[in-house]
Amino acid sequence: MRVHNWLVAALFLPTLALAMPKEARVPGGVALVPLTGIDSEQAPEVHYGNNRVMVVPGENSGWVAVVGIPLDAKADETQQLTLDQGGYSFRIDDKQYESQYLTVKEKKYVEPDPEQIKRWRRESAEMGAAFTHWSAPSEPTTGFALPALGPFSSPFGLRRFFNKQPRKPHSGLDIAAPEGAPITAPAPGTVVAVGNYFFNGNTVIVDHGYGLTTMYCHMSKIDVALGDQLDMGDAIGKVGSTGRVTGPHLHWSVSLNNVRVDPLLFLDGQ
Length: 270
Known about the structure:
By secondary structure, this protein is mainly beta. The chain has helices at residues 5-10, 114-131, and strands at 30-35, 46-48, 51-52, 54-57, 63-68, 79-83, 86-90, 99-102, 152-154, 159-162, 165-166, 173-175, 182-184, 189-197, 201-209, 212-219, 221-222, 229-230, 235-238, 250-256, 259-261. It has two domains: 5-90, Immunoglobulin-like, CATH 2.60.40.1590; 99-266, Glucose Permease (Domain IIA) (Distorted Sandwich), CATH 2.70.70.10.
């Protein structure tokens, strides 16, 4: 296990308030919503749509909901949180993401046949179960280290076109590391999905607790198995070019309450 020096030092410091992700109340962003008027010693159970939301202690007192906002959320619609003691609402701002046009050589990744579509649906259900998995470790994770080293080649949220055909927005951050470069766990977690998926290639999904998960795609090698417990810095696998790609890179997704959000919001000071 590889442990960062700053993490070792942190073990000997007094317990501090959680370093929250950067708030960005936009589609694909994160809202930090104070749950005022709740003085319970236990975190309240909060939902956003059909998904449970991470709730953490506030800086001084009370509780804060850490909410992932969908990329298709509309700025003119009130966003609603629900819980037993009532509801909370918040507004979001609009954000326009840039477009990206990519050329994919293999036709099946742009126009899959019926059998390939069936395979993709099965795999989507498997990944969906991982994204909605709920666990409650003793300490919540609210920030990450980078899982690979390299320039950011495709940012989160791009409106994508493959061979001039529109596709879903880019739901992760692409890190242009070379083939075989190491991929490491950005925080403690449990491996909840491992597979070779049609579009994503060799893929691993890690649960960090309280509705926060990370996904690693297009890997050349997977070094973990289902159920493995990871510490920050543990090996997950190697960068590759499996699945629908135009070259070797790591596609890294961060999911919060089953919503893909911008990973950069969780990289404190990086």
